[in-house]
Amino acid sequence: MPYPHAGPTGLGPIAQQAAQVIYQHRLISTTQLHQLITPHHTRAEYLRRQLHTMRETGLAETVGRRVSGQTELLWWLTEKGANAVESVGMLPQRPYRMSPEAALGPLQEHTLATVETGLAFVNWARRLDHECGPLDWTPETAHYYRDDSRPGEELSLIPDAVLNYVHTDPKAKQRALLTFFIEVDRTQMTIARLAQKLHAYAAYYDFTPQQTSGRGAKTTRRAGTTPAWRYRYPAFPRLLLILTGASETRLTRRVADLRSLAASDPALTTTGLRAGVTTLEELRDRGPFEPIFTPVLGPADHTDAWLRPHAIAA
Questions:
Q1: Angle between helices 30-37 and 108-128 (to 10 degrees)
Q2: C-alpha torsion angle, residues 47, 51, 57, 63 (rounded to 10)
Q3: What is the model's pLDDT at position 69?
Q4: Quick one: average pLDDT of 59-86?
Q5: If you count Cβ atoms within 10 Å of the first and of the last residue's Cβ in the chain, which end, N or C, has fewer?
Q6: 66, containing H or E segment
Q7: What would the pLDDT profile of 244-281 be if each residue is shown by its tens digit?
Q8: Which of 104, 145, 118, 156 lies closest to 21, judged by CA?
Q9: Is 122 left (phi over 0), alpha (psi -120 to 50) or beta?
Q10: In angstroms, rounded to a whole number, what is the distance separating the alpha carbons of residues 35 and 119?
């Protein structure tokens, strides 16, 4: 989808776009920025010069990451750079600030894998003449809910990303806005914890906030009729679990284990939540609209394309 070009003043258009993308995604490699912002350039030299200008002016900083024996730069915005992007007012403000410690910390690979997942959608949108751009997914957006299994607690569901994608069908002259919850799993968490995330999504799907009326001592509460998610989404986003960081054999076992745990959770056997799991490699190589997703709930039949746009838009 089109995204704004305004950014910190004094920078060229490419650097302005880079500042926005880095701000949105917090930590990102030069290679990822090149593919997202300047894919029409064979080489990334011009982008690199713009990025180095941002670093020289104190808007951005870097850390090095070893990849295949070479050092790749990872970029984040300094406080000055983040404030400059926020001052333009083109993007929703993000309270998160990156630091050298966080950029080098244990979440580095997970953050980059989330960007890589969004990049896969962007690349396939370009190939298929759909719409999905560098700013069409937002990391770690909180969704508040309550769960009957944890009475009295205010809970927060935070997907790794919420991604928007416009699917176009020129023959049928139809366009559909698809929204996905993205969870990236690098096999660092236990399979039980991953299953607990599914439970949280099911609880959010069912959560209907109470309605209040009156003031002070006369305030009354009654059961609501509108699920919380309907205030944010026209249809409940499908949950996509993207596995990476291990061998194909291990990831295949992980899918089977996740399905087994999900089948034993009573909250998941009756939920309307739709969740599918695939690997980052399959998503990159075949695209989201091929039969690459295994349903987490119900029969493990993925011979048909699980993300049929008409099914999501309905």
A1: 20
A2: -170
A3: 76
A4: 91
A5: C
A6: strand 60-67
A7: 999 999 999 999 999 999 999 888 888 899 999 999 99
A8: 118
A9: alpha
A10: 8
